[in-house]
Amino acid sequence: MKWHVLRPLWVAIGLVGLILVSRQFLVPDDFGVHGRNFTYGYHRLSNIQEWKDFPVKYRGRESCVECHEENVSMLNASSHEPVECENCHGPAVNHPDDKELLPLDTRRELCLRCHAFLDYPNSDRGELMSIEDKRHKRRYECIKCHNPHDPKEDME
Amino acid sequence: MTCSRRDFLKDSVGGTLASVLPMSAFTLLSQAEAEAAIAESKVRWAFLVDTTKCVGCGLCVKACKNENEIPYDAAVTRTWVERYVITKDGETHIDSPMGGRDGFIDDKIRDEEIDPEDIDKAFFVPKLCNQCDNPACVQVCPVGATYQTHDGVVLIDRDWCIGCGYCIMACPYGVRFFHPEQKVADKCNFCYHRISKGMQPACVECCSFGARRIANLKDPDDPVTKIIRTERVAVLKDEYGTKPHVFYLGLDAGVR
Amino acid sequence: MIDEPIVHGIEWTVKELFVYPNEFIYWSIQIVMYPYMTGLVAGAFVLSSLYHVFGQKDLKEIAQFSLVFSLALLPVAAVPLLLHLQQPTRAMEPLLTPHFTSAIAAFGIVFTTYALIVLSEIWFVYRKYFVEQVAELKEKPGLSNAMKRMVYRVLTIGAYDVSDGAIRVDKKAAKVLAAIGIPVACFLHGYAGFIFGSVKANALWMSPLMPVIFIMSAVVSGIALCMLTYIVIMEWQAFRQRRGGGLEVAGAIKGAEKEVINKAARYLLGFLVAAISLEMLDLIFRGYTAMKSWDILRSVMYGKDFLNIFVLQYTLGNLVPFVLLILPRRTLWRTVLALLLVLFGVFMMRWNVVIGGQAFSLSFSGYMHYEIPIIPHSIETFKEGVFGALTVISLPFIFFWIINKFVPSLRRDTTSI
After folding, report:
1. Angle (CA) C167 C168 C169, round 5°
2. pLDDT tens sequence across A6-20
3. Are residues A85 and A105 in the same domain?
4. Which residue in the set B11, B95, B170 is minimally distant from C199, CB to CB?
5. Which residue in A2, B142, B200, C51 is a FRET match for C157, CA 20 to 30 A apart?
6. What's the domain count of chain A?
7. What is this model's ipTM?
8. C176 falls within a domain
């Protein structure tokens, strides 16, 4: 029996062994099938909590009302009630702790998102009170005349 | 000859070992346990998009980018809005500039003027990851970096993804992309960090028109679930067998 | 170098009409190179096995050469993937946590298995030479000889028995490995075809024929490359002989070369016909069944990509070399031209599948044009550009040169089989 013939096999097994050993060090312990089956549930378990811990940026109107009651109640009573504060003021994140003033976008383009007229029959876009951008006070920002917290204020 | 039989077994054994032994390092639940875990889950997230209400303001796209730290000026986005204008000659004009991030202010589509008189139909269609029940993207991930949670959301493990892009190619809906900074795959996850805390996804929160809503299909009292169950809803591209969980009201046949 | 985050793919993708916002050509030149290189690997091995398994004695020399060349090609097959991955440092993960429902996870296993088979087979074929070198180099002084001897000692893995019985066993083992290696080589490349063919989201790729088409064209490219390299090497050797006055030996080299090339060419033609037939079948089926995607596919294939598909791949890369090879009184130059065209044709096939599959949007309402980066201005445009591809294509020859120094595959006296 010429045993030398098995030597490449030992090398192969050694290599496979090396991979398995390095697996112990390189693959996190919680990696496995957690869920429905191998196809859809093969992953590192701790990743789920990592995603749950992702920082929240938009805090919602309930968190604005604590300090900004006046503006919020004006908004709630107006036709802009459906518009979130953070749509125009940007995400609160840790305001006021890390940012005293939230950057406010006062450009026409922000308002035109809804209020630039588009004659689309199957969308509520055509129903919104809107303007033709080119024909309405092109040089000015909308807020020069319109109060975003109460758009119908001082308007006929 | 015993020698030749040994030779024959040589690399078949080597190859088999190589493929079998890694599997032994799984933490395998028994089939019954796994099924029980899913059946017990009291949550299965789904989404409802009402295309009749979407006005194409794009504030959802902006909110998503801010909330999920997708670079604002990058041409990729976890959610987007498509504009469809079908003219009388039967042509369908579709666009989604920067995913609708800045809304739709111009009535020109790719510099083409469209006379409102020529419009038969025009509407907006928001899109996002469908969190499919049989996600093709999860099936093709070579390393287990993307997976389905017990409540139906498909997540990506940023620390494990190798960036091969197979999942991106496998998604029929085009919702996946490479995150320009993280250099791994990325996609909408229904703001998993928010819904797990009882909050709404950022796009749902910021939609002023109620075009976007999230639902828990396992909660019979969820008002959105009731709509999905009792009204006529559609899904995108169901021919791929992925079982998408974003349902649409008012979806037109011409939507791609 | 650009510091701001660049969307991967945006620099070489030009969108036309409506394309989903997140769609770019993510799988670019390196993903074209990868199946091309693995195809060459598989083809070279199959050519070698034709001798070892089926005893085609006329192919002995080219078989020895192509076995070692297959080894030189093997690590190169992994390079395009390393260049493509967004996280190349995690490249070992498919070996550590293979998700077997993914065709790409098979890569680690198949690649490793195939590498072990090729290495083992080479070991059995050249073991006697290694043992002889260990003895010979012992007599020779000098550090480089001592180092070379050390390498050969490692290469023997301590198996020094070169008796007739031992060599007989070596021959048998090599034959078995060559036989096992054929299905593994087919699997190596078939799975590459499966990677594309199983993507139901891609209207061009999705086809059960894809793995078979890939295997056929892989064998074609492997045989062609081995024949070409063999011709170059033999011509060089003959030229050296003539220069040194050995006209008779040169004549013998040329004669043997001609026999080998004629034999190999017949196999090449067979696989060439198989490859083109399958592609035609796929195309005809698609046109006949006219599924939802047919309109955009047709406009891509008959319109934008007409040059790439019908002129460059089918005509220049298939039909012309076929004609060149079967016409009588075939000269060496005609053969060389045909082989170059075949290699080009197989490259175009990979290109047309990978890039062609991304030439149309998932929306079926738009197109994406691939503008391959030529002059790199960043790491990414180097890796996924012309120079990245040129780097990959030049590596096998460098590796072969190095390997050949220890495993001389072109001399007739170094193999025991």
Report:
1. 90
2. 899 999 999 999 999
3. yes
4. B170
5. C51
6. 2
7. 0.91
8. yes
